[in-house]
Amino acid sequence: SSGINAEYGELSSYMSLKDKGNSFFSKGEYPKAIEAYSQAITQHNEDGDKNELSVLYCNRSAAFLKVEDFVNAEKDAKTSIQLDPQQIKARYRLAVCLSKLGRPREAKDILLQALKSSPQNQPIVLLLGEISEVVDELDQRKSYVELQRGSPALSTFPVLLAYDDVRGRCFLAKRDIQPGELLMRIAPVVKVLEDKYLTTRCNSCFNLVDSSKKVCSDCKRAIFCDECSLSPNFTSIHKTECLILKQLFSNPNFIISDSRDIRLLIRLALLKKGEITEHQVNGVPVVQDTLSSAMALSTHPSKIDKLQIQSFQMAAYNTLKLLGDNPEKMPQFVSDLVTLQSGFLSNAHEISSVLYPSDLWGIGLFPTGAIFNHCCEPNAAFSVDRYGALCFHSLRVIKAGNEALAQYIDVFPPKQERQHQLKQTYFFDCKCTRCSSPHGDGNLLSFIGKNMEECLKIEDEGYRIYDSAQDCEDNQKAINEIERGIKMITGTLHPHNFLFACFYRLIIGLAIKENDWKRCTKYIPLLLEVYYGLFGEGEKSMVIGAEIGRRLFQLWQAWKKLGDVENANKTAIEATKVLKIVLGPDHYLLSIFRLQIE
């Protein structure tokens, strides 16, 4: 209040304060608007007029919405309605609050009430359409859970499929689950290789194939390992698509190096037509995902760009033409293919090695895997086993009744970066414990220098150096630039500041490319120190267990290359301990790793 009075002098009436609040609001100065409306409310209480007081609460609710304080925005909107039941704007804002707070059914009821007194109110109509879409999707998810809950395959695992409107579909621990336990193993509806691996990795399990094996003589775009070549499921899928792929790759207008998405769509179309079956995997236990489970995935149609939807429609049309069908006579089929493509945007799983995540082998649609919700402090992680099944393992103890949570993105960066990526790709605001805590980012954004202006200046220059090094095509020159950047920010930024981690990650990658193993032994431990500084050591660090296991594996490689047996063995024991939890004790990569250690 002192700030407003100092800037504008004593304001004698609540109307003047209201006008100042409106002025601040229009300029985007929402905290000042909240302060002005609060003073106006205090003064107005002495006067009377409920309708005017309702407007003030309604305005302050709007300001709270702008700063994303949905709890106080909800309280003010409700107070405004109590004072004036005809206050339509307050009902609209209350519906927005309830939606943001994960209560869309309540929001829908509020809007339906508002429409009774204002049936032509366009903002109300539009918001009701959006929220009704959300409620319909929630109903579909609930029905899916009720249908799938009794599945014999699901019952073999230590997690229970459950549902509520806040979390949606989720998996809850049936009992106390220990680190490294298998939570779920899933066979995909479909999966496809990246183009660069079509003739070197098995078209089914994605494992490397011996160079002596022959590529398919017809399409010249598929190869199978010995085990998968004996499976009728795998060979029948390729037999059906082989002629289509041959036709596709012989088209001079088709970009041969960019066929992944169209190959995926061909498989989905053939699956929907009943000409192939879902992609099965060897080994048990396993949940076999189906086309119907894929259709039940969240697709967020209102949040997908219209041009993207048009692109999906065009792809569906072209695929059906390629299959010899007339898409004009199959509108529902086209619509379903668009739905499946939309589902892929935020539900597909990238398939790669945990140890080499940047080396993407392909993508797959595992609807049951998509039920695992995201958390920036996950207690579960997924990997792919030797048969191509998606496996989730517990990273930490999960108490009975608690939710098993995975990660959709790299959870190490600061909150703002994580939130942006989740919103852009998965269309939600994360409200996990870490994101809700004011201390969730530790020292990722901290300085140790005393002059704030100088600290910010050095940080900005540090990020400029980082960006320059990323773009540099000369690896050695980039390494020199990074080390200059590290030296510059040392003593100013906190040792656990995010920029240090950015520099360390980049220089480690470049050092591996240059076979500079000595640099790896210097910077990998420094990167691990930043991780431990944020999450803690031991079980706490397993929040990013896959990343820590990967870095320990790289460190072991470096010591081994340098001939330092003592440090190599010490690191190998530490890496094995972590990877046994991340991958499960029986994962094939772990057995290979053990052999290399020996």
Kindly list the characteristics that best describe this protein.
single chain, 598 residues, three-stranded antiparallel sheet, 25 helices, 11 strands, 8% strand
Task: Tell me about this structure.
By secondary structure, the protein is of the alpha+beta class. The protein has helices at residues 2-8, 14-26, 30-44, 50-66, 70-83, 88-100, 104-117, 122-148, 152-155, 226-229, 232-249, 260-272, 291-295, 306-322, 331-347, 367-370, 415-426, 433-436, 452-471, 475-489, 498-513, 517-535, 545-561, 565-583, 588-597, and strands at residues 159-164, 168-173, 182-187, 190-193, 287-288, 349-352, 360-365, 373-374, 380-384, 390-394, 405-406. Strands 5-3-10-9 form a 4-stranded mixed β-sheet. Strands 4-7-6 form a 3-stranded antiparallel β-sheet. A two-stranded antiparallel ribbon has the order 1-2. Helix 12 (260-272) crosses helix 15 (331-347). Mean pLDDT is 89; it is low at 1-11.
Low-confidence blocks of residues: 1-11
Q: How many strands in all?
A: 11
What kind of sheet is the major sheet? 4 strands, mixed
Radius of gyration based on Cα positions:
28 Å
Helix run count: 25
Overall geometric form: globular
- State which percent range the strand residues make up: 5-15%
**N→C terminal distance:** 71 Å
Task: Summarize it.
This protein has helices at 2-8, 14-26, 30-44, 50-66, 70-83, 88-100, 104-117, 122-148, 152-155, 226-229, 232-249, 260-272, 291-295, 306-322, 331-347, 367-370, 415-426, 433-436, 452-471, 475-489, 498-513, 517-535, 545-561, 565-583, 588-597, and strands at 159-164, 168-173, 182-187, 190-193, 287-288, 349-352, 360-365, 373-374, 380-384, 390-394, 405-406.
